[in-house]
Amino acid sequence: MLVFTTARNEQLRLPHFLSHYRALGVGHFLFVLNNSDDATEAFLAEQPDVSLWQTKAGYKASRFGVDWITWLLFRYGHRHWCLTVDVDEVLIYPHCDTRSLPDLTAFLEQSDAAAMGALMLDLFPQGPLDQPTYAPGQDPTEVLTHFDAGPYRAERQLPAQNLWVQGGPRDRVHFADRPARAPTLNKLPLVRWSRRYAYLNSTHSALPPHLNLAWDGPACVSDDTRLSGALLHTKFLPDIVARSREEKARREHFGRPEDFDDYYDWLSSAPDLWHEGAVAYQGWRQLVDLGLISAGGWE
């Protein structure tokens, strides 16, 4: 099992990221480090199961890292099950507490599945985003304790037939008056890779189009019962405030930079995303019960 990811200034999240995926059976990590100026490089260079590439090229010019990862997938991922995730994404799936990623991919192969879909589930604390404390290596769910169980909405887009799922706390709080601009929450992180494949937009969509049909979205918005997982999104650890100010200044994000100024200003204000309807995170079984992921007959 191979993990592919890009990183910049991630020394806070990397200890837990590596330990989590090692525990799931990942054999090797392939990192592209982009313009990092903290201790990330030194930390990764010490890891025996990490291969590290570095670039000072523009993140936006590389289609937000997709071009860099595509080259690595082409060179090293062919005919392997490959997991492409960001450092702030913690993959969980049915039985992940007792079954490894190789167990999961064996089941997917038996089911003739070439990929597994996942909901990016925004986790958040109870209170302003800058109030908790977090130590490197700590389980982020001890700090980011809650999530939105719904509503989520999903639709297909042409011509690639890719899924488009939206919802969650950012949709609820910041994009309530412009829901079409809310973040996309569907991903295809786990794929039995071929040199004929390519990601289009992060791991939100892929080519050929049949890969996008591997998942129809959370069961709460569809009747899809194929096995799926969730990427616990740890974006809202307390460093989000400083990172948002920096990202606004770097202007390396999607679309026109000025369109995101108010978004980064909002995050820089350390908003409180918690509300009375927030659900305390308890594990994969809870997400199955809520219809956010599916066991797909894997009993």
TrEMBL record:
Organism name: Aliiroseovarius zhejiangensis
Name assigned to this protein: Glycosyl transferase family 2
